């Protein structure tokens, strides 16, 4: 009797899940598996698929554009993730208090995240405009005669893209941190205050440890998102000038859809997958030391 | 409901039988809802063409169907920016496109291009109208498409600005150095009111053009001829007579809006700009007078030597109606189709006196000296081989040229680097399998 009801329950459950699982199998699982197989072949989208063994992977070693893209992606991640998260925590802590107009500030910081990337990029292109842009206008008024040309300069382009990406994603992480902050019991702070702890020490010894699960989550998501960056680069610089802002996903896009080397592009995608996987595994191992789930 | 279904089914069966390609008539009969009549059922073809050419194809098709009432063609298009990406995708997924237009080189590696040599021979097509273009389009000695139009480079100038400055109009025999001097002379003012002597679109073509004019090719082993053009562009920027590369790319500057704004004296761009300016005139967006002269040339190169890119029509080798598809191509890229395209202001692959006259018109439309277009000696803008456009023109030449123009590399370094990258990123893959021309 009981097992029959259980079975029927299960059936209902799976039926409800079916649309989602089907979608996952067809649109995610199948392409992911297929591209893994394609990564060992040479294929331009037409005709026969030639088995190429590991040659696509060995070719990556001598591919200069891939090396540049990988390096750019690593720099981007190393700079933008810590900067974004630190600024987001500070913003969250500042806006967690019931100050006047706090909602306006929260909205203002969150707004970039929900704005279309194209619009964001166009506005930043104007800001960065070397001759007419407000940024260089400001720098010139400070007495700097030859301000950088930002997106048009090989030295500054990557930095400029990173700044836009930080600005674009702070809001999202801030909201996560705000939610985390709401969950910290007030009595912890009260007790600390009675013990004579200052604001800084409260932040270090209560806020940060209590927030650590959220921080752990945001670090992982931040790194993944940063490696995945594509649209911003695509609209802001198209990887230029030269290849100074070429990123991994942009390289994959170019290889697959402009050079029509689907096998090689799939190999790149799997290298990217491996990098993210390894970094994430390392973090899961390391979390025991600093993430506090109590 | 039932009746029309039956009709459609018999129609599709008929088509399948008559076309003689098995019983699988599902695709051919799909749109064939009109009754087939007493004569042979029409063959239905699908054609995908560039958005700018769609209208003209439809006009020309009206004439074509008078001669070939049994061939129905349904023209479709894809937005310009994704044209090649999407079309390749559709062709690879077995979409039943019978013929399509575009730059032939993009499809050479796919195996979907049907060689047309036999059809051309059997139909007795007069290929002399294509001039030297016919042979330069051959790949490994075979013809894979016929050019229905082409894009050639020209120098446009704003007559009003020259009048105001009291400077004589650009001559039809100008070296690049003379062009540079003239641009300097025409440059005036500062900031928003600045009048620029010239505008060179931030494409690699606008600098590597000078090398190609001397007969060099961008896949050559020795690329030293291309140094002069890159240095030239740098010098022009230093003169201040044109907008710098950095500013152009950060403001997404565009030759069309730049020239229409009225503060650019000379604009180096392709023949399609004629149509853009005529349209702007019709919409009363511009109020200055303009004309064209041949592009400047390097010392020792013949006057009016220009670069051209043919746009072809090709047959899908998987089409069930190759014969009919070839008929469409023969018509569209031949004398009759060319006349329609010429009348709309397109430069056509096929040329004869009649088409030349149609293209030049009765003089009521600008530019006054449009005849320069049909008198050009032309080199292909880039060799029509797979990967050249995407890998060389749009990535390697673009990226390394950019480094020189933003000061991150010297001209010599950039050209050396281009040579290295052409060898490792393109030649290794394609140079042995594909040869342009006869």
TrEMBL record, chain A:
This is Multiple sugar transport system permease protein. Belongs to the binding-protein-dependent transport system permease family. Its main location: membrane. It comes from the Bacteria. It is a multi-pass membrane protein. Keywords: Cell membrane, Membrane, Sugar transport, Transmembrane, Transmembrane helix, Transport. One of its GO terms (cellular component) is plasma membrane. InterPro entries: ABC_transporter_permease (IPR051393), MetI-like (IPR000515), MetI-like_sf (IPR035906). One of its GO terms (biological process) is transmembrane transport. SUPFAM superfamilies: MalF N-terminal region-like, MetI-like. Residues 70-283 form the ABC transmembrane type-1 domain. It is found in: Cell membrane. Pfam families: BPD_transp_1. The chain crosses the membrane at residues 21-40, 70-95, 107-127, 156-179, 208-227, 262-284.
Automatic annotation (TrEMBL), chain B:
Keywords: Cell membrane, Lipoprotein, Membrane, Palmitate, Signal, Sugar transport, Transport. CDD domains: PBP2_TMBP_like. The keyword Signal applies. The keyword Membrane applies. Residues 1-28 form the signal peptide. Coiled coil: none annotated. Pfam families: SBP_bac_1 (PF01547). InterPro entries: Bact_solute-bd_prot1, SBP. It comes from the Bacteria. PANTHER family: ARABINOSE-BINDING PROTEIN-RELATED (PTHR43649), POLYGALACTURONAN_RHAMNOGALACTURONAN-BINDING PROTEIN YTCQ (PTHR43649:SF33). This is Multiple sugar transport system substrate-binding protein.
